Amino acid sequence: MTLQLGLVGLPNVGKSTLLNALTRAGAVVAPYPFTTIEPNVGVAALRDPRLEALAEMVRPERVVHATVRFVDIAGLVRGAHQGEGLGNQFLGHIRDVDAIVMVARCFEDVDVAHPYGRVDPVADLETLDLELALADLGTLERRLEKTRSSAKAAPREFTEELARLESLQEALQAGQRAAEWGRQNGETERVRGWSMLTGKPRLFVANVAEESLPQGGPLAESVRELAAKEGGEVVVICAQVEMELIDWPEEEAALYLQELGLSGRGLDRLVAAGFRLLDLVTFFTITGGQEVRAWPVSRDTPAVAAAGKVHTDMERGFIRAEVLPVDELLAAGSWTAARDAGRVRVEGRNYPVQDGDVAHFRFAV
Questions:
Q1: Domain 300-363 carries which CATH code?
Q2: pLDDT tens, 4-41?
Q3: What's the pTM value of the predicted model, to 2 decimals?
Q4: Are the beta carbons of 362 and 347 closer than 8 angstroms?
Q5: For 127-198, which CATH class?
Q6: How many angstroms separate the CA atoms of 242 and 105, rounded?
Q7: Per-domain boundaries in the chain
């Protein structure tokens, strides 16, 4: 699977700079350059030291990283749900993303105008929340109209569905996010099926000035306080620094980030937060000497379903999974050596794939 993150923010928060920095920085560690699918979408390969270590051991013809797809919609403004600005044209583009990244401007710059005259990330995020909720209410109203029409012909079949939709409508009107309503009512999966923007998992990015790194300063702290109310995570990034480091040699960029007190590039930290938010793990496959590949899946994905990510034939004809943690494989020096030492485990179809597993799936055609 490709992790999909939707970037949402007001105009002039640095989303475009962030998108360009993230995707181009990702291309540096990929075996192929990043691909821009359309003006608002970028794809980057994800750095994983374990995959790189496997590639060093196996020396395959091809190394395939996991990827993240960033969808950047135009800056939202008040009234976007009614067509104000350009944001409304693109809201539909983020209905299918896995999670939403709320980008907040946490820097002062007299040369970069703020749409409302002053930098206030909390007020900006509240504006975004309102617009997303109003967009959801519009979507919900259309669904309600169809359900009410269907209920007239078959009331018993649609009574419960109608009650759920009306309950969610009341919650949204009261300022509650669809995600919160879903958790309270045990309807999280149903909310996801309804494609509610406020029902998606989300995290926050505080885009700060370089001098505010690594913690972000008072403006970023206000974003942390807001995020903490919903158990959300905040990633502090200086998009301008990330952009400037794109063309630096990798070692020099790493040293400079250390001097700034940062553990790595913004892409790596943001994607790591996305993995935690969505509770994803990564397993690896080795195809002879031809390919080493990383596969992100949801935690506790059974082996048979993980095999299906590699190829549908593997899922249909699944026999067993031969599994070894990546660290043990690297210590053994080869799959053959690990197997001869009795380190490779045999697991059945319901085995929950673990983060860092190297898996070889046996299947019947």
A1: 3.10.20.30
A2: 999 998 888 888 888 888 887 443 222 233 333 444 78
A3: 0.87
A4: no
A5: mainly alpha
A6: 15
A7: 3-47+66-121+200-277, 127-198, 300-363
